[in-house]
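Researcher: We plan to redesign the surface later, but first we want a full-length starting point. Tokens attached.
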């Protein structure tokens, strides 16, 4: 995981320089894609003790120190509830909660305009950061210079303020869109996944409530790279957020065995279901009347996880 993160960072620096030297918007787009993958990987590291790799996240206009609070202490403790910052911060641009009086525009226009929000999310963050510094609600940190330094380097390499700025904007727009879109289709939003206003489970066990608000996509489990950039193995990540993603798969046999003890039919889903589900959830104004849970059908389990389960049983 560490080597992958370092490799991504090195590739990003190289791609940014290449885009600037050649004044290439295609390379700037590629740099944005690399930045998106870095942010996914860095997410793994800011959940852990202080380490320099968590600051790879700050290559973007987002802040690892902010996310340690909003993501670690809000989203992870209260996923998909009224206390989840990653639900409220999207409003009024994207409304995921199935509020009975959700406005028509939020239900049927937002599924289209949300893509513009994703594209401009980093710009909004830049404006918020500048405003916070001006009015004194946030302190300046040296690490916050990183995004501006990249912009200056691009301007110097191209010899043009306008070209350098446009190249940098291309990079962060690309990263902004893919980071936001992949994050929103990753694990949390589908009409069958618990959101505030849905009927709550009768047994408010913390672990069960975490699983109620998460689903895992079957296509990425087994590939550390895909897991890192797309927030895979998300159920285990919510149960054990400080465990490195490279170690999480080894916990699947214990997770599934424990779920069976609690009569929970743990199952993966296909990525296309989460993609469609995200848009359906935006449109939803009808709280789910049924308590959350996994459907009582044959569970969908990746082959790599099945092999781990069989191996554990053979050694028992």
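Model: Full-length starting sequence:
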């Amino acid at each position: 995981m560490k080597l992958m993160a370092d490799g991504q960072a090195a590739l990003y620096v190289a791609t940014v320089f290449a885009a600037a030297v050649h004044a290439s918007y295609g390379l700037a787009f590629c740099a944005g894609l690399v930045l998106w993958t870095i942010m996914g990987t860095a997410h793994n590291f800011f959940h852990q003790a202080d380490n320099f790799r968590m600051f790879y996240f700050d290559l973007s206009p987002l802040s690892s120190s902010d996310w340690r609070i909003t993501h670690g202490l809000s989203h992870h403790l209260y996923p998909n509830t009224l206390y989840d910052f990653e639900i409220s911060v999207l409003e009024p641009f994207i409304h995921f909660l199935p509020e009975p009086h959700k406005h028509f525009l939020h239900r049927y226009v937002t599924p289209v305009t949300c893509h513009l929000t994703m594209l401009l999310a980093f710009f909004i963050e830049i404006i918020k950061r500048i405003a916070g510094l001006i009015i004194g609600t946030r302190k300046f940190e040296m690490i916050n210079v990183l995004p501006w330094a990249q912009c200056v380097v691009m301007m110097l390499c191209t010899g043009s303020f306008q070209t350098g700025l446009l190249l940098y904007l291309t990079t962060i727009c690309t990263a902004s869109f893919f980071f936001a879109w992949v994050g929103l289709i990753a694990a949390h939003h589908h009409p069958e996944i618990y959101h505030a206003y849905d009927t709550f489970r009768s047994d408010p066990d913390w672990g069960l409530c975490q699983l109620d608000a998460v689903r895992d996509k079957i296509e990425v489990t087994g590939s550390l790279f895909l897991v890192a950039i797309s927030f895979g193995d998300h159920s285990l990540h919510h149960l054990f957020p400080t465990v490195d993603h490279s170690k999480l798969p080894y916990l699947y046999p214990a997770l599934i065995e424990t779920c069976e003890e609690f009569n929970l039919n743990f199952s993966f889903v296909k990525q296309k279901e989460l993609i469609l589900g995200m848009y359906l959830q935006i449109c939803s104004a009808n709280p789910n009347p049924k308590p959350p849970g996994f459907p009582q059908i044959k569970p969908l389990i990746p082959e790599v996880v099945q092999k781990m389960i069989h191996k554990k049983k053979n050694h028992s």
